[in-house]
Specification:
The N and C termini lie close together (about 10 Å). The protein has eleven helices and seven strands. A seven-stranded mixed beta sheet has the order 1-3-2-4-5-6-7, with helices on both faces. The protein is an alpha/beta fold.
Length: about 350
């Protein structure tokens, strides 16, 4: 196992952003609470394409030709869509094929007919990859709550996975950290409030800051705006969040991701010594510590979403490492391979 701390970044390059651990939904709700009584919603934002209602298949955006390297599949966090990966995809396509998608019920994808459990979401993705002709093992990347869906997929379909990357993610190791579990319980309440705010038409008040936090532009910004101003999207995203806590327990009961799956994690923190941030790091680093081939990248000074934008160099480095030929076929775990 490789366990490394990332080099410290120049303090002058840091900027104050969203430090929320629970994804974009939390910042949205807090802004609604703070601004909802003091402003009026506007309808002058960008307009995105309509959902592909009735198609039965999730919306996918894939770029680049198939190569010998594994395809990279990107899973967005809570309330997110494929648009969240707009900047990352622009860079990743330079080294191979990359795909991002909207989960069923979100963004441009049609409504789902099953409960949005992590297991069902993983099965949806498996079916979609079949339809795309992605028969070889892929590298799965999950941001925030999307990391749980990646973990679930790698647990249920290990032969389809060349490696996993959890980006400031939620996973079954959170069950061992009371401070983290408290945050996730708060997320359920805030997700419910987000859906209510969407029905009240308050979303446009805070969508642009959410887009700016990642740095999205052009079509990605349009896609993100359309999703976060859609009551349908917000309600379905809420329903996903309500399945997270029971999903964590079921993934652990199933057995979790095996140690032979190469695993990288990015831990973003504006306050690494804060007790809650330390609890998050403990939980987030655990999957890489268990893996025969693992890498922890500490993105001190990064916000929860900046690894998708300003700080995506961490993301690119981790994916480049996961593309190392023969990484998954390395010998069984060896204590001599653990490096700090």
């Amino acid at each position: 196992m490789i366990f490394a701390r990332s080099p410290a970044k120049d303090p002058a390059s840091l900027w104050v952003g969203d430090r929320a651990r629970l994804g974009l939904a939390l910042g949205m709700v807090l802004a609604w609470i703070g601004l909802g009584l003091g402003g009026c919603a506007t309808a002058n934002g960008p307009v995105g394409g309509p959902p592909r209602l009735g198609s039965g298949e999730p919306f996918f955006e894939c770029r680049g030709p198939t190569t010998a390297a594994p395809t990279v599949v990107l899973e967005a966090g809570a309330f997110g869509t494929s648009a969240d990966w707009g900047l990352a995809m622009r860079d990743l396509v330079k080294t191979g094929r990359v795909c991002a998608y909207d989960r069923l019920g979100l963004g441009r994808s049609p409504d789902r007919i099953t409960a949005p459990t992590p297991e069902n979401i993983a099965r949806d993705l498996s079916s979609a990859l079949d339809n795309l002709g992605e028969t070889q093992p892929v590298i799965l990347v999950g941001h925030s709550n999307g990391a749980l869906y990646v973990e679930t997929f790698a647990t249920l379909f290990p032969a389809r996975v060349a490696g996993v990357l959890y980006v400031d993610g939620v996973g079954s190791d959170d069950l061992d950290e009371p401070l983290v579990m408290s945050d996730l319980q708060d997320e359920e309440t805030l997700a419910r409030l987000a859906a209510i705010g969407g029905r009240m038409g308050l979303a446009p008040l805070v969508v642009q800051p959410t887009i700016d936090a990642i740095g999205l532009q052009d079509s990605a910004a349009h896609h993100k705006w359309a999703a976060l101003t859609s009551p349908r999207h917000l309600q379905n995203a809420r329903d996903e969040v309500l399945q997270v806590l029971p999903g964590l327990r079921r993934v652990r009961e199933i057995g979790g991701v095996g140690p032979t799956t190469p695993t990288a994690v990015i831990v973003a923190s504006l306050a690494p010594t804060d007790p809650t941030d330390r609890a998050w790091r403990q939980a987030q680093a655990a999957p890489a510590r268990r893996a025969c081939q693992g890498w922890v990248l500490d993105a001190d000074g990064a916000t929860h979403v900046s690894p998708l934008g300003r700080d995506r160099s961490y993301l690119l480095a981790a994916i480049a490492w996961l593309k190392t030929p023969g990484l998954k076929s390395a010998r069984a775990c060896d204590g001599q391979g653990f490096r700090r």
